[in-house]
Amino acid sequence: MTTNVKRPLSPHLQIYRPQLTSVMSILHRATGAFLSLGTIVLAYWLIAAANGVETYQQAQSLLGSWFGLLLLFGWTFALFYHLSNGIRHLFWDAGLGVDIKTSYTAGKLVWMMAFVLTGLAWFLAFSIKGVG
Amino acid sequence: MTQLSTPLSRVRGWGSAKEGTHYFIAQRLSAIALIPLALWFVVSIVFFINKGDHANLIAWLQSPWNAELLVLFIVFLFWHTYIGLQEIFQDYVHHEVLKAISLISLKFFVIILTVASLWAILRIALGG
User: Fold this and answer.
1) Which domains does chain A have, with CATH numbers?
2) Complex ipTM > 0.90
């Protein structure tokens, strides 16, 4: 006698409630994918600079528009998140901090670092440039 | 000797590729290299590039240390990006033909982008 019920082989996303650790894990991948798009802009910016003053100014005003600034802000946060969480991952690879308590503490630290470094970078950038 | 694979998977011959560990290692190596390089890049943008014009950027790039560090940053960054995106495509693209096409396109695209970026840096660093 067989049953036709298609049971999942193991509990998956629709079973588990999101936790700090699982959300941070998928965000690591999401920020990485988002940062990949930034490499295209980085390449474009370098080529524009190599081509001369005019194309560089064009690139700079594109990046300085509200949409450009929004993207740059997003990339800054994604970079600092991915960087901080990447260090957390490297510690795990070394076999350190894999227990639940430490991984939660380190996870919260990653969020803090991402926000503080993003804020610091943009505060410094605007105060050095002298434009509000 | 008990066979653990199903008859279907034996017929298809899709076993382990017996390679791939080097991607795991390269991902971590490039990650370690990118910690100081990415921080250096952000600091450079904030303190030197952000406030200046084109001439300022050229002068910054023509100092040998900056050119070398930027080349290193680009190489490690694009390598790390390639491995990460490849992992995402392998995980989420299930159609075998689409998977092959996306992986091959990704490889060519990253190589083109890397060479274009490095070429641009060299043009500035070596140009008069």
Assistant:
1) 21-129 (1.20.1300.10)
2) no
